[in-house]
Amino acid sequence: MSSDGLYFESEFLIDLQTEIGCKFTMPENNQEITVVAKVTRVEVIEGSKLFGIGAYFTKIDDKDREFIRQAIDRYDINKLLEAAVKKNASDLHLLANQKAVLRINGELQQMDTPAYKADEIYKMIFSLMSKQQIRIFEKQKELDFGIQFDANNRFRVNVHQQRGFIEAVLRLINSRIASFEELQIPEEVKGFIRHKDGLVLVIGPTGSGKTTTIAAMVNLINQERKAVVITLERPIEYMHVNDKCIIKQREIGTDTFSFSEALKSSLRQDPNIIVVGEMEDLETVKTALLAAEAGYLVIASFHAPDTLQAIDRLVSIFPPENRKQVLAQFSHCLRGIITQMLIPRSDIKGRFLATEILVVNEAVKKVIRNDELIQLRNIMQTGSGAKMRSFAESLKQCFEQGIIDGETYEWYALKNS
Asked: Is a pLDDT exceeding 80 seen at residue 192?
């Protein structure tokens, strides 16, 4: 509905240009509104016996029109999205019976909005969703999808329930893909993606910029190589335009049902490079290893706090009796790992990218194969000649450059010791 017209579903077909009398009740105060509207749009709703009817008001009381406008303004989520973009927030939280909240430079900030009722959030979020997405959410109680806000910004939306209330988190994504230099991704990572085959892992906790780093990797590949790149994402966040590469972006839940099934299918689509947005289950990890061994370059992200735990957790997805075999596979096909986290700066507003780099050489392969993962920390700390670095080194460098203060340095250094 808008202050100029409405859309509804009907069991009966209504001819275009027909004037109809409509009576409806506004949920805010049960106010009954009577209008006359002219039908301007008719569509058949797929999979049902209903017709979608669009009509604009030809007769409506001015007070009723203003009441509708004010009610719709209250539910206009675009104003909140615009505020998130202007303030360069990373996330927008919509919570039942609370004001909207932004996360800016890692800190939560309450917005100057009304405390939204649960049914108001329901209306705001559902206004962004297609009918198919609404059906999926109502069945599964969880949904991830992406929306394009303007030419430069997209939002990744997660809709969920807590204590029976529908709530949402909307993550802001700048549609422009930043370069390695802008993101301050170490040069060593360029070497990872120039391999013709093998496994490259991008590791970090939620919100550490893994998706942004992978987008920069794919963008560089697109500029340098003639290759077929297949990305498996949930949802698609950055849109890639074919340059030297053919890039096929498949969204889990829209173009395919799961990472594991999409990954198996991608092997029959003539790929050179496969990007796996999330290594979430045994079958996905298993297929990724097989693809890396079979001659494809696989770039994948995984949630873990550091390099050592990432390898251990991935291997632990398999049954314990397979650990030795899986470690041998990892040692054979792994090419490199970048582990990252975003840390608040002390010199200026914003966050910087702290990274841990593992370059897989013969010493690293031996440590992984022999299940001596604890030694990886020493290898990274002493492996500067092999272009490796540990979080400790990255943090120390930033402290010495004045990017972070002593308190921040000590806190993160202790956390990653």
From this structure: yes
